[in-house]
Write a structure and sequence with these properties.
Strand content: 15-25%
Number of strands: 23
Number of helices: 17
Length: about 475
């Protein structure tokens, strides 16, 4: 199925934000931070807020951040501390019940304490944890793995939420960059492998956490540092405190695709700005897969822009704008209908015949997954008069699904599955096709240590034990279906 915005790349994951800031308009800060994290999830959005020692109020709904919240909503939320979430579903359907933050109320469903929680990642032992908690009398209202984490913390017998977090983390397997709030503190923690990003910032005298540093730029907060794998960070009246609670011997496995595609180009990861790393990927790609005699380098907008600049700079081939993008066609719940559907990508962007006609083109994109969109792009350029179309990808061939919080389709849907590069090129209709090497990616990132990253979508080498036997996206819905049928 085509992506509503006309792209067919990996579906983004989720974005999280949290702030403890009495005296600040925390709900509004969370709202604008979620705007900056919108690229990480467009299915639903939500904010939970509370006055210190008061009750937690949560608002969440399907849709984009701008669709979910209005001015009166932010005024109603108020509060001294808040967390927020933007979601793309990786476990559980795109339904209101699975939107976040998850809110667990004290005294019901097996809960000892009230809390709200937002999570980026995916548990690979979700079915096992779900069954364990249900056997203890804990009830669920959704089919997302995020509520499993929330339920485990809310129902935990420990006196403090910090002690509950320290005991629950070793029980969780998979990727979980998480923010959780009670009525007097915000706690952020990251899985011991550090698969998904999480960063710490400061807003005046208040501290905040987010999936990416671009959220801090939006609200004028200062980037402090990354939250370490296995670290628990507590934001409360004392300021910020932290403790290493995950297995110190765990293998780090930060997702290398964050550098290539997921994170916003103005975010900082691994000590540098991603925009620079992505331009270097284009430079490496030009060195590894040159196109002698090409006339023009163009990007597939917008995510291919940095690599296209790097390719043009390194190759000496001029760069041009081959497409005009309609920036007001974003993700929407209003589908184009049968008459317009045949036009496909033309709802999103159109080639410029005056620029591409008669030219030998190097077309740079950030990744190719199923190939459906790429085939359309190639045909659109040929229809516009391009003489040759040479496709270059700043990601290696994607051959394996992700089980750590990204929906990348099944192996059988991936165009690189059991195909050679030459076969893929023929399928896409290109004059030539080349991908950056995996070694080239790590070089571009800054000679990053592959042993501390996850590149399973390219290599098939999953870093966490038990991954290949993990559940499917909708498996948590089966126990509910079965129990309701009895």
């Amino acid at each position: 199925m085509a992506d509503p915005d006309g792209r067919e790349g990996p579906r983004d994951e989720c974005g999280v934000f949290g702030i403890y800031g009495p005296g600040h308009d925390v709900s509004r800060l969370a709202y604008f931070s979620l705007f900056a994290l919108q690229h990480r999830g467009q299915e639903s959005a939500g904010i939970a807020a509370a006055d210190v020692d008061g009750y937690i109020i949560t608002q969440r709904a399907l849709g984009l951040v701008s669709q979910v919240f209005k001015e009166h909503d932010l005024k109603a939320l108020g509060g001294d501390l808040a967390i927020g979430h933007t979601r793309y579903s990786t476990t559980g359907s795109n339904e209101w019940e699975n939107s976040q933050p998850v809110h667990r109320s004290a005294g019901s469903g097996g809960n000892r304490r009230e809390l709200a929680l937002a999570h980026n990642g995916n548990l690979i032992n979700a079915v096992e944890m779900h069954a364990k908690l249900r056997s203890q009398g804990v009830t669920f209202s959704s089919t997302s793995d995020s509520e499993i984490i929330a339920a485990a913390l809310a129902s935990h017998p420990a006196e403090t939420i910090e002690e509950a977090v320290k005991d629950v983390i070793p029980q969780l397997k998979g990727a979980f960059s998480t923010v959780v709030m009670t009525n007097d503190k915000v706690i952020a923690f990251r899985d011991p492998a550090g698969v998904r990003p999480l960063v710490l910032g400061r807003f005046g005298d208040a501290y905040c956490v987010a999936s990416e540093s671009c959220a801090f730029l939006t609200i004028g907060a200062e980037y402090v540092r990354e939250v370490k794998p296995g670290e628990m960070v507590v934001l409360d009246a004392r300021g910020v405190t932290s403790e290493q609670v995950g297995d110190p011997a765990a293998r780090e496995a930060f997702c290398v695709f964050e550098y290539i595609y997921f994170a916003r180009p103005d975010s900082r990861m691994g000590g540098g700005a991603l925009q620079i790393a992505r331009e270097r990927m284009g430079e490496v790609l030009a060195r590894e897969a040159p196109v002698p005699g090409a006339d023009l380098v163009i990007a597939v907008p917008d995510s291919g822009n940095p690599a296209a600049r790097g390719f043009a700079r390194a190759s000496g081939i001029p760069q041009g704008e081959g497409f005009v993008k309609n920036r007001y066609i974003a993700r929407t719940f209003i589908q184009p209908g049968q008459e317009l559907r045949k036009h496909g990508l033309r709802l999103k962007f159109n080639p410029l015949p005056e620029v591409v006609a008669g030219k030998s083109l190097v077309v740079v994109d950030d990744s190719i997954v199923r190939g459906n969109t790429t085939r359309q792009i190639v045909q659109m350029l040929r229809d516009a008069g391009a003489r040759e179309v040479h496709m270059r990808s700043s990601a290696p061939p994607i051959k394996n699904p992700c089980y750590y919080g990204v929906d990348m389709s099944t192996r059988e849907e991936m165009v690189a599955h059991q195909r050679t590069v030459e076969e893929i090129s023929a399928h896409l209709g290109t004059d030539s096709l080349a991908y950056i090497s995996l070694e080239g990616v790590y070089e571009a990132v800054g000679n990053a240590d592959r042993a501390r990253h996850c590149d399973a979508c390219f290599s098939g080498e999953y870093p966490l034990d038990g991954t290949v036997a993990t559940q499917g996206k909708f498996d948590l819905e089966l126990p509910l279906v079965q129990s309701s049928a009895r």
